[in-house]
UniProtKB/TrEMBL annotation:
The name this protein goes by in its record: Argininosuccinate lyase
Cell membrane is among the record's keywords: no
Recorded metabolic or biological pathway in which this protein acts: Amino-acid biosynthesis; L-arginine biosynthesis; L-arginine from L-ornithine and carbamoyl phosphate: step 3/3
PANTHER family: ARGININOSUCCINATE LYASE
Record's keyword terms, sorted: Amino-acid biosynthesis, Arginine biosynthesis, Cytoplasm, Lyase
Gene Ontology MF terms: argininosuccinate lyase activity
Enzyme class: lyase
Taxonomic source organism: Sphingomonas quercus
UniProt keyword annotation of Nucleus present: no
Length: 457
């Protein structure tokens, strides 16, 4: 009864659900590079004639120029970037276009294209992370001596230097870069020539196409090669981890920019106002970096969930691999650029940071350590004595260094005037000169090493 309507309906929906061209057109450069390498190999192996290969190569160059100039036309009927380019090739050079797909399937084609794309994405992220590290190192060098409270449980713990705090993020970015670099090495094997799933009977040369496309070697198992998306998941894992780090820094910027903290002032360029509250200066960029990290993690989970139940080899589910990778990449690139810009331009309110370090009795550990070192008191007892001194300073509304000697001696007679050498926040940070500690000399040494690593001399 409704068959007529239904017969048309599902066909349109089928086309819509099946088409990946709206997103996989982003692979056009990689697709053309892969096809050119493939056809050159086919000619070298005598599988297609030199004349056909030349016509195909020239046609692909022309299509690349068209895509570059006008973008990729989005014809859903042509399903994906691979079919769209091949269809256009037929328009441009005629029937010889049909020889391009010899000894190839879209399964090894898309696996190759996507690896090439992810490889480029890794290189772009690496550059972004390096710029971020340079910004951190530059600001850390300005603030190797700037004292701020260090926190545990978000409670004032011990004074640290701002340079030390910023260099903590340099270290995170260093590990993030090594994760991307590691993923790049592992993924750099070429699936092209695996064909649909079983390989091909044509006398192809997989070493040649792998080398032409900058891969280290061809993949070793055709079933694995067409159904492996580890490389994309590796990329997303590294992206999620890097975004997580950016998000922690973003959260700190949000906190530090709040009025009760007042540790930083964001420049106009990275702040937004409120349409109703005229006094507002909101850290939206930092909030969005924090928010984007959640979406990037979601992309990782999306692809892992897509892949986890797929039998070998290719299933169309795998077409859904691209949107989460593209999305995560765009979000990460934007987050990195925004965070780098914020770090470069944020102003640190040194007097507020120092005052907060003093107000939080952050040198209480220094007092306890002094009681152990100089007065030879067991640490547990020293801890108790210091606790009393903190309680007194709290009730007197002053810092530990402002307590008069008589008051300290009333708590414990073994305290003498030398204790005042360790109570200032500057003395506290200077004392923490163990390797990797917060002492300015240590921070400067780490910055010098980082500058060398970054090629800044
Ligand atoms: N657009 C497809 C994808 O991205 C290409 C591979 C299609 N292969 C197939 N056998 N239908 O996964």
């Amino acid at each position: 009864m409704w068959g007529g309507r239904f017969a048309e309906g599902p066909a349109a929906v089928m086309r819509e659900i099946n088409a990946s061209i709206p997103f996989d057109k982003r692979l056009w450069r990689q697709d053309i590079a892969g096809s050119k390498a493939h056809v050159a190999m086919l000619a070298a192996q005598g599988i297609v004639t030199a004349a056909d290969a030349d016509a195909i190569g020239a046609g692909l160059d022309r299509i690349a120029a068209e895509y570059e100039a006008d973008g990729v036309p989005e014809d859903l009927a042509l399903e994906d970037i691979h079919m769209a380019t091949e269809a256009r090739l037929k328009d441009v050079i005629g029937d010889a276009a049909g020889r391009l797909h010899t000894a190839r399937s879209r399964n090894d084609q898309v696996a190759t294209d996507f690896r090439l794309w992810v490889r480029d994405a890794i290189d772009a992220v690496e550059a972004g992370l390096e710029a971020f590290q340079k910004a951190l190192v530059a600001r850390a060098a300005e603030h190797a001596d700037t004292v701020m409270p260090g926190f545990t449980h978000l409670q004032s713990a011990q004074p640290v230097t701002l340079g030390h705090h910023l260099m903590a993020y340099y270290e995170m970015a260093r590990r993030d870069r090594s994760r991307f670099a590691d993923a790049r090495v592992r993924m750099n094997e070429c699936p092209l020539g695996s064909a649909a799933l079983a390989g091909t009977g044509f006398p192809i040369d997989r070493q040649a196409t792998a080398a032409a496309l900058g891969f280290d070697r061809p993949t070793a198992n055709s079933l694995d090669a067409v159904s492996d998306r580890d490389f994309a998941i590796d990329y997303l894992m590294a992206a999620a981890q890097a975004a997580l780090h950016l998000s922690r820094l973003a959260e700190e910027i949000v906190l530090w920019a709040s009025q009760p903290f007042g540790f930083v002032a964001l420049p106009d360029a990275y702040s937004t106002g409120s349409s109703i509250m005229p006094q507002k200066r909101n850290p939206d960029a930092a909030e969005l970096v924090r928010g984007h990290a959640g979406r990037i993690q979601g992309c990782l989970v999306a692809l892992m969930t897509t892949m986890k139940g797929l039998p070998l080899a290719y299933s169309k589910d795998m077409q859904d691999d691209k949107p989460p990778v593209f999305e995560a990449h765009d979000l990460l690139a934007l987050s990195l650029a925004a965070m780098t810009g914020m770090i470069e331009t944020i102003s640190f309110r040194q007097e507020r940071m120092r005052a907060a370090a003093e107000a939080g009795f952050a040198t209480a550990t220094d007092l306890a350590d002094w009681l152990v070192r100089v007065a030879d008191i067991p640490f547990r007892e020293a801890h108790e004595i210091t606790g009393k001194a903190v309680r007194l300073a709290e009730s007197e509304r002053c810092g530990l260094a402002q307590l008069p000697l008589e008051a300290l001696q009333a708590i414990d007679g073994r305290i003498d005037e030398r204790v005042y050498q360790v109570l200032p926040v500057e003395a506290s940070v200077a004392a923490r000169a163990s390797f990797g500690g917060t002492a300015p000399e240590q921070v400067r040494a780490r910055i010098a090493e980082a500058r060398t690593t970054l090629g800044l001399g």
